[in-house]
Amino acid sequence: MTEEIAKVYSPDAIEPRWAREWIERQLYRPPSDAAPERFALVIPPPNITGSLHMGHMLEHTEIDILMRWHRMRGASVLWLPGTDHASIATQMIVEQELGREALPQLEGKPESKSAWRREGQRRRREMGHEKFLERCWEWKEQNGGTIRRQMERLGASVDWTRDRFTMDPAYSRAVAEVFARLYEEGLIYRGKYIVNWCPRCGTAVSDLEVIHEERPGHLWYIRYPFENGKGYLVVATTRPETMLGDTAVAVNPSDERYRASVGRKIVLPLLGRAIPVVADDFVDPKFGTGAVKVTPAHDPNDFEISERHNLPRIEVIDDEARMTAEAGPYQGLDRFEAREAVVQDLRERGQLEKIEDYALSVGTCQRCKTVVEPRLSTQWFMKMKQLAAPAIRVVEDGRIRIVPENYRKIYLDWMENIHDWCVSRQLWWGHRIPAWYCEACGQVIVARETPQSCPKCHTKDLRPDDDVLDTWFSSALWPFATLGWPEETEDLRRYYPNDLMIMGFDILFFWGARMIMMGMKFMKDVPFRELYIHALVRDAERQKMSKTKGNVLDPLEVTEKYGTDAVRFALAISAAPGTDIAFSNDKVESYRAFANKIWNAARFILMNLEKPPAAFREQLAEGLQPPAGLGLGAVAAPESLALADRWIFSRLATVTRELNEALETFRFHEAASTIYHFFWHELCDWYLEWLKPEITAIHSGELPPAARAAWTNLMRVFEASLHLLHPFMPFITEELWHRLPRVRHETSLSLAPFALVGERVADPVSEKQFQIVQELIVLARNAKAETGAQKEKPSAQVASEDLRILELLRAHQETIQRLAGLKALNFTRGRMTADPSVRVGSGFDLRLLHEQSVDPAAERARLQKEKEKLERQLAQSKKQLDDQNFVSRAPREVVRGAEHRFEELSAHLKKVLEALGKMS
RNA sequence: AGGCCCGUAGCUCAGCCUGGUUAGAGCGCUACCUUGACACGGUAGAGGUCAACGGUUCGAGUCCGUUCGGGCCUACCA
Questions:
Q1: Which nucleotide is nearest to A597 (CA to C1')?
Q2: Which positions in strand B are less than 7 Å from the protein's CB atoms?
Q3: Range among A188-192, A694-698, A707-711 with highest mean pLDDT value
Q4: Distance in angstroms: CA A353, C1' B23
Q5: pLDDT at position A339, please?
Q6: Angle between helices A54-72 and A639-664 (to 10 degrees)
Q7: Which protein residue lies nearest to nucleotide B38, measured between its Cα and the C1' atom?
Q8: CA distance linking residue A528 with residue A628, whole number of Å
Q9: What's the whole-number mean pLDDT along residues A71-100?
Q10: β-pairing, A203-205 with A188-198?
Q11: Separation between the CA of A122 and the C1’ of B2 (whole angstroms)
């Protein structure tokens, strides 16, 4: 059996097996019998076009830790998985595929992608809605499962029986229902307004999908001559090509310089159109010349001016960003070519006054980086102010807690300044807008099911709306639509509101905010009680990971290399709320070492467990089952072992409490470092070492009581540790847990209780005592190392005035000798006479009796250094105690602590000085 | 134009909310150790004017203000 346990942990040998088993057994389907508590969370649905990146990995790690933790604490846990149809991303991929099929000869050419896209768009229109959507579904079936397979491999404890997709038939019905209700209430309207138009994607996009970036540009100052009489106005513009669509020039009504011009007519350069000068408060007299050209069809502000002054709207740029017939001689030019041409022509005609450098904020399409064109277009909009009000209220009054808290302000600020949302997209893949137009009478019909005839004129000639909804429209319904809404299902009753939502900051507005609005609107309740915003995973140099930079780490690759548990742990221990994570393979490597450490601790235990008689192992298995409702404690052992037992159980109790507290507040890094430190530097470094003789000894016949106690307590501590580690490292802990001796064969550690050790075993006195023993051991090792005697096994003397300390140390003499590497140890009551080799501990002195002579120069240097340090500390301490203000005003225990410290430092320094004195 | 975050050991970060022993961790570094769990290991160690200045306080890495440096977000000024 011992041969079965490999010397080095190899995750690839066990992870896929457990991942499969967890799914096959449907372990993470919440039990239908009502547990006293439930904990529900829906996944932020990844795109079907995507594959897992480090951000998902972090998100899923954090969620999975919490889900496993809640589950082990007895809650009925639902983590509902699913994917998002990603309207624009999917359509672009499928179009590109179509183009590639049509033009295979472009393979490898630099311009192939955009050529394929254009060809793909053409072929889409050619094949029509039905055929194209078939292709999309086909693509989804073939490629949309990537994320699911990855999540399965990584062991996410989701309920796959409830897997959802935003275009499931039931889900789509919910989308239509929401659209119809909002339309009926007047919260959705259709109209011709300025929208953000991406000429490359060929669709409108929402404000959030426009990325603003500062770019160097120019301000062109153009002379606009008056129609009658001499003179001209000078207007400044960053986009000269739009002047072709100007229908006015605006000035501020209070601007003295232009008062006489208001109401006059101006001749638009190049085109010769006569346009008025209007007065409008929007104009800032201090900017540029104080006179603004007004292009209502291509600028949102100008559009509003045109509304106030009833100005015509002339479209000069089309949906592919080419100049229209309205642009006269510039027709057919691309907008940027037109800019060159217009500037050139103005210059030639002497109508260009000057050009200034000017940094301007350019809006680009989030998806394709093309400069977005503000364009007049008929679209569907959602009125947001009214919907936002309750969503603001629930965050203000704490019904939804946003963590970390600074995101609360960001959320509220955005919500309070919200604009109407353009929800229609000129795309085909997605939820078709449930609207029809009567060809006979022009009636607009919004309906949940396809209408048969026009309700107004009863003709049957109805044309469906061509467009689909913004993907985020459907995502906003995710917390309730996934649970069956609008049907009043059992799931909906049981799991709405969700308890928690975890997402990245990048989708707080896109998704978080909208979920809250829709939840309040349609469920009359919050979608979740807490919203935790996780960090961004950056590369080792703190750069954002991006495909173009080529610094993207594939979580699956990293996982294959180091194991899922190591990657999870590396992420968790780095995940301090509000701080981005600098991720590197080095980091993962060090937590692979941790996994290996766990593995080898188990290996040591299990190998040695072969030594006691089989009957004892069976007894041990019984002891591993904690009595229901009771926390485990230590069984009685001889005094030489009992201190370590009391100490480790006490630590275990503390660690359990700290873990719970940390996870309650999303402090993953604290939780992870707590358990890391406990397992490695307390359990392995001290407890296991302490027990080693009992564990490794071979006994003939009946096991002596000391060994029985040692084994029992060790197994309890080790098992309890596996429980605590499980949410962070599910695979290795599951594997090892199953290898423990046990009488019952339970399904999975993930369904076992989290905390086996109760608060009751906390024992501060034992912890303090253990620390004294530890201190002696460390001091002795230190003394050996500093005198170059690591290889020796010297004898040592310990002296203390405190009889209890002496007794304590004497009781653990053998262990101390073994762990410190000492040949013998003798004890003296009282103080040790000053001597260069005396070391001072808290409450005791230690001297090594070296076999070989020690270099006096090195000793003196060491003492000198110690002296300086002590003097420094003492001076500081004295200064504090001399301060009457401190002594009279600080709390008594603080003053007492300071006094105690002063005494210790003084005593220590005295000894060092004496020792130095003896040397000279 | 507003707003947010960060600046602590060579590197990556905790600690700051709730002020009080000697400011912690991981990686890296140095010395020693292949000891029958583990070299993905063990033992010991070096390394910090907590960005700067000022304030509050008996006491500031921690609270407040200012400055400098870095990052990010929101916004309809041509």
A1: B38
A2: 3-6, 11-15, 20-22, 25-27, 31-33, 36-45, 57-59, 72-78
A3: A188-192
A4: 63
A5: 95
A6: 120
A7: A600
A8: 33
A9: 95
A10: antiparallel
A11: 45
Q: Which nucleotide is nearest to A782 (CA to C1')?
A: B44
Cβ neighbours of residue A591 under 8 Å, at least 6 residues apart? A562, A565, A566, A567, A569, A570, A573
**Nucleotide showing the shortest C1' distance to residue A578 CA:** B5
Please provide residue A428's backbone torsions phi and psi, each rounded to the nearest 5 degrees.
-110, -35
How far apart, in whole angstroms, are the C-alpha atoms of residue A816 and residue A802? Answer: 18
Gap from A187 CA to B21 C1', in Å?
63
Which residue is listed with tokens 């459907």?
A: A474
Tokens of A754: 């989290």
Beta bridge partners of A274: A267
Determine the protein residue whose CA lies at the shortest distance from the C1' of B59.
A886
Nearest protein residue to nucleotide B41 (CA to C1' distance) is: A597
Phi-psi domain of A349 (left: phi exceeds 0; alpha: psi -120 through 50; beta: other): alpha
Whole-number distance in Å between A468 CA and B38 C1': 59
Distance from CA(A750) to C1'(B39), angstroms, rounded: 33
CA of A580 to C1' of B77 (A): 34
Phi-psi label, residue A229: left if phi above 0, alpha if psi -120 to 50, beta otherwise: left
Q: CA at A865, C1' at B70: how many angstroms apart?
A: 39
CA to C1' distance (Å), from A666 to B51: 29
- Predicted local confidence at residue A34, as pLDDT: 66
Question: What six digits make up the tokens of A205?
Answer: 């996009």
DSSP state of A798: E
**Nucleotide in closest CA–C1' contact with A819:** B43
- pTM for this predicted structure: 0.94
A266-305 exposure pattern, b = at least 16 Cβ within 10 A, e = fewer: bbbbbbebebbbbbbeebebeebbbbbbbbbbbbebbbbb
Using alpha carbons, select from A382, A537, A477, A430 the residue that is nearest to residue A58: A537
Closest nucleotide to the alpha carbon of A696, via C1': B36
Comparing C-alpha atoms, which of A853, A848, A852, A832 is closest to residue A795?
A: A848
Q: What is the ipTM of this complex?
A: 0.94
Alpha carbon distance A98, A730 (integer Å): 43
**Each residue's pLDDT tens digit, A192-242:** 999 999 999 999 999 999 998 888 889 999 999 999 888 999 999 999 999
Quick one: tokens of A387? 């919907």
